[in-house]
């Protein structure tokens, strides 16, 4: 794939293309790869550069109404997203640049449950207009793209309304010590029929109401360049936030306009609600980590990492009339962890040198382990040895490998385990992405998010905690020390968004119920499509990138079959014309 940055030399340029894809994250790149392979001319328009940078990160600014504390969000999202700031991105986590969100994700992947697609009479606006069976082949293909195993470890728990649930992690194709980064792992393999323009932010969709088609895209660069793209077809693949913002900022997408007659664009924003349910003490941490930690499974010539958790079974959801959700354990660092103390000493920022030095000495074994991991990551380590060591470690000590990765290769002293919960949020019309009065550096209105949870999510969390307590007691496992709000129905849990934004251009059979149809085509437009989480009517509880890619690959096949029909129609018309003029 040819990649270049827009500059002032391009100012005023007009570029024609068969397929324009707005956004070069995992969804945009996946669609580009498949369509290019089918012979379609593809132009990717990426707002950022190859990697994140401060200037383009500033374009991610978003306001939010009634969100939880910045500190809680920073603790959850901060370790992975290097340039992300909880004040600037008061809702969600977005990364501008080739590969999009995979520059900062955890690689955690799982597919949705059948109940996630069903209309549930206790969940308003639930139900997908397509069936899970229609997505099954694309889920398998997306799993292959992510390098995931189709096999799962043997389930270990089925009790008290809960079932074993496994997330697995998408590993890099080129760096066994890292997660898959689509800009590095997938983009280089896309053929020459695709081109990617960087620093190319789409600011407006031009729409011809007479033809019912997108006529052009207005594109701006931070260098000051402005260009126009004239595509035959367009796919919006810029995230649930940006897909909605771009449509709302364009005349055709404003409330009541041609592509938003029912004021559905930006609405029904869903995410995953995350919170801590309780704690397990240090004395039981090792035992529970073995059961609910990380496991490995060999498939396709490599070892795959899985995290074991517990999910609500469908029968419990129906009986209790609750949402879907799951729990897992996360490690908690001890106050006398040696690594922060060593960092303070090395940077000469220690306020208590003697105390920090003593802490480092007591934790010298951990420091030595960290040094060994850093040596393994060194570019001087032979690749064959590196891969052999990593494969053996994943097979034999998967919990240790996960710990090393999560801490950046610096093992930490632990004080116990926290029981973390993730639940879907009900699709509510009032939860939405809207436009604020403030403008970004390109003169575009900044988005504003309204995302609130309610009784449905809070009751689901309490049922999950009760099920955990019952199940753990029955199995003679240590029951967590639960958060006080769980037993107080008048208390509100402290909830943060999990940065899994979905639903703002939701899929529906009719324009009165959603924004795109079952082919992801925007209602009212012949050649405009949306992709990614924005088309999801509901979000389940699973980390959604795997499902984003499955729906994207289904759209890509639709686009390629559409192209084949157009080619055949053109050939037939040419044949008729030739026959007419030759007699």
UniProtKB/TrEMBL annotation:
Keyword Flavoprotein in annotation: yes
Glucose-methanol-choline oxidoreductase C-terminal domain span: 427-552
UniProt keyword annotations, A-Z: FAD, Flavoprotein, Oxidoreductase
Cofactor: FAD
InterPro entries in the record: FAD/NAD-bd_sf (IPR036188), GMC_OxRtase_C (IPR007867), P2Ox-like (IPR051473)
Tagged with keyword Oxidoreductase: yes
Gene Ontology MF annotations: oxidoreductase activity, acting on CH-OH group of donors
Family: Belongs to the GMC oxidoreductase family.
PANTHER family: PYRANOSE 2-OXIDASE (PTHR42784:SF1)
The protein's name in its UniProt record: GMC family oxidoreductase
């Amino acid at each position: 794939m040819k990649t270049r940055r827009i500059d002032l030399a391009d100012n005023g340029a007009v570029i024609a293309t068969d397929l324009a894809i707005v956004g070069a994250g995992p969804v945009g790149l996946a669609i580009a790869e498949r369509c290019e392979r089918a012979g379609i001319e593809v132009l990717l328009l990426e707002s950022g550069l190859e990697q994140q940078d401060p200037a383009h990160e500033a374009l991610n600014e978003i306001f939010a109404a009634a969100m939880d504390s910045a500190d809680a969000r920073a603790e959850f999202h901060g370790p992975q997203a290097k340039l992300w700031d909880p004040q600037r991105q008061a809702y969600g986590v977005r990364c501008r640049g080739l590969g999009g969100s995979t520059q900062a994700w955890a690689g955690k992947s799982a597919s949705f449950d059948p109940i996630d697609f069903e209309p549930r009479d206790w969940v308003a606006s639930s139900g997908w207009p397509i069936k899970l069976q229609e997505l099954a082949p694309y889920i398998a293909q997306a799993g292959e793209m992510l390098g995931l195993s189709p096999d799962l470890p043997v389930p270990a728990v089925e009790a008290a309304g809960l079932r074993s649930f496994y997330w697995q992690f998408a590993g890099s194709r080129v760096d066994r010590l890292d997660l898959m980064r689509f800009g590095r792992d997938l983009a280089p393999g896309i053929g020459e029929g695709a081109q990617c323009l960087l620093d190319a932010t789409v600011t407006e969709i031009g729409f011809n109401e007479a033809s019912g088609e997108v006529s052009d895209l207005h594109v701006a660069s931070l260098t000051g360049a402005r260009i126009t793209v004239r595509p035959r077809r367009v796919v919006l693949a810029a995230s649930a936030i940006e897909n909605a913002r771009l449509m709302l900022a364009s005349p055709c997408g404003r409330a009541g306009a041609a592509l938003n007659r029912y004021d559905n664009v930006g609405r029904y924003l869903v995410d995953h609600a995350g919170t801590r349910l309780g704690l397990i003490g240090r004395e039981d941490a090792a035992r529970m980590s073995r059961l609910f930690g990380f496991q490995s499974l060999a498939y396709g010539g490599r070892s795959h990492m899985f995290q074991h958790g517990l999910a609500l079974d469908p029968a419990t959801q129906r009986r209790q009339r609750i949402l879907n959700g799951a729990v897992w354990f996360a490690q908690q660092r001890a106050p006398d962890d040696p690594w922060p103390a060593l960092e303070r000493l090395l940077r000469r920022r220690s306020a208590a040198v003697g105390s920090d030095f003593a802490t480092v000495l007591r934790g010298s074994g951990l420091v030595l382990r960290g040094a060994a991991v850093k040596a393994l990551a060194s570019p001087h380590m032979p690749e064959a040895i590196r891969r052999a060591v990593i494969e053996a470690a994943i097979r034999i000590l998967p919990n240790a490998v996960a710990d090393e990765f999560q801490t950046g290769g610096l093992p930490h002293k632990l004080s116990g385990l926290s029981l973390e919960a993730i639940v879907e949020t009900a699709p509510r019309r009032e939860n939405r992405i809207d436009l604020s009065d403030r403008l970004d550096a390109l003169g575009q209105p900044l988005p504003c998010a309204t995302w609130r949870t309610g009784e449905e999510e809070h009751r689901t969390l309490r049922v999950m905690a009760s099920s955990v307590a019952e199940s753990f007691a029955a199995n003679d496992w240590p029951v967590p020390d639960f958060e006080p709000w769980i037993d107080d129905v008048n208390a509100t849990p402290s909830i943060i968004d999990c940065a899994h934004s979905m639903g703002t251009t939701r899929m529906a059979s009719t324009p009165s119920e959603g924004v795109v149809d079952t082919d992801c085509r925007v209602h009212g437009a012949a050649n405009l499509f949306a992709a990614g989480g924005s088309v999801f009517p509901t979000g389940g509880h699973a980390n959604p990138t795997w499902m984003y890619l499955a729906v994207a690959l289904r759209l890509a096949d639709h686009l390629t079959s559409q192209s084949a029909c157009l080619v055949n129609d053109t050939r037939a018309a040419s044949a008729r014309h030739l026959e007419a003029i030759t007699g």
